[in-house]
Amino acid sequence: MFPQFLLLICVLPVQTLAFPSQHTVNEKSSPHLRASRYSRSGNYHIPSVVQNGTSKARFDIQTPKTTLDTETLFSLDAPQIDPINSSVFEWWYFDVVSETNPDDSLVVTFFTSSMEAFPFLDPNETSILSVWLWASFANGTVFEDSVPATVATVTGADGRTNSSGNWSPTGFTWNALTANLSQYEIIIASEKLQVEGRLTLTSRAPPNLPCGIQPGRTELEIAPHIGWVNLVPDAVAEVDMEIHGSTLKFRGSGYHDKNWSDRPFIDSVQSWYWGHGRVGPYSIVWFSYLAINDTTNTTYVSSYVAKDGEILVSACDPSILTVRPIGKPGTTGGRYPPYARDIPDGFRLEYDLGEAGQLKVNVSVRTVVAGDEEYYMRWTGDMVGEVESERGGGGPKKEMGERDAHSSSPLVGVAVLEQFVLLE
């Protein structure tokens, strides 16, 4: 989600907390963050300058049921950090990759962060509010640029109005079109970037929280100090954009999530593998993470698999998901745990689906959408997979397709994926 002129990162030793983290920001007396800029109408008005004082973050929510009601959904798409001081970051992320040609892709990210908290932002920008746009074309062209905002407004925190965001006066907005957040529209009218058009998402799968939805109270930390919610794991998405006079128009697999943290990125992350896509009838999301200076080398994961819109797996048990890089012989691309400048050719994913078997997917990286070839990379990719189900006494049975009566084709699909590796 970041520009090509990334800064070199100095990873400093820090003390790693046990998970779940015991920081005091988890202790909250109200279901929503409240501050001087949080109005009774459910609107957040976020200024463009770093705020003084201690920030508070929300890393859990009340979930009396195993489904998310409208108010809870809206609160998940609202700001989770307040106020934005120099140590915290938060972003709202939307993407789409073409189903027919993964070289076509679009990513839009709305940031509230200083460069001190998230050092992959523009070092020359003073506003903590910015929107980044990345677009890749079938002809190999990759466009990336950003625009600062003077104020950001996020609505819907009270559950009475649909979620929306406006980073003014950038010309970038998002709007949830339905009360259950199953449809989004991102509208761009940026004279500065010479970009105009829209991205629409219509969800194909239910929302995903790091460990699924738990009775009573649900954790929102994917790892210590890293919050994550995935409101649209997979969507039918349509892009219709004019970018510097070039048309980008396609249909594909879309996605929306958000991340936040109550401390600087480099104080938490050693490595971070994330991606999503659709392979055959399966909507999949993966997140595999190592914390910096964790002597136990604990792997934090979140696994999500839905088939035809029905959730098969939504969990954070590391025995359910394995993510490993794949590299060419003679290179460090397949090394694990990874180090900075280890650039893989792809990833091997293995999901334990319980009685449904094992979903095994090879993801091959394709178009480099963003990155510095050191600490951060984002790609579009191709996926090929299979499901192995146990057959009583007869060993594993491979299902190489959706397994209708006549299918023998492999599961295939497209993905967007990324890695951060900050360990030297």
Automatic annotation (TrEMBL):
Q: Where is the signal peptide?
A: 1-18
Q: Which Pfam families does the entry link to?
A: AsqO_C (PF25581), DA_N (PF24137)
- Presence of keyword Cell division: no
SUPFAM superfamilies under this entry?
Answer: AttH-like
In which domain of life is the source organism classified?
A: Eukaryota
Which InterPro entries does its entry note?
Answer: AsqO/PenF-like_C, DA_N
Please list the residue ranges that the record marks as compositionally biased, kind Basic and acidic residues. 388-406
Residues forming the AsqO/PenF-like C-terminal domain are 267-391
Q: Which residues form the Diels-Alderase N-terminal domain?
A: 81-260
What keywords appear on the UniProt entry? Answer: Signal
- Positions of the UniProt region annotated as Disordered: 386-408
Protein name per its UniProtKB record:
Hydroxyneurosporene synthase
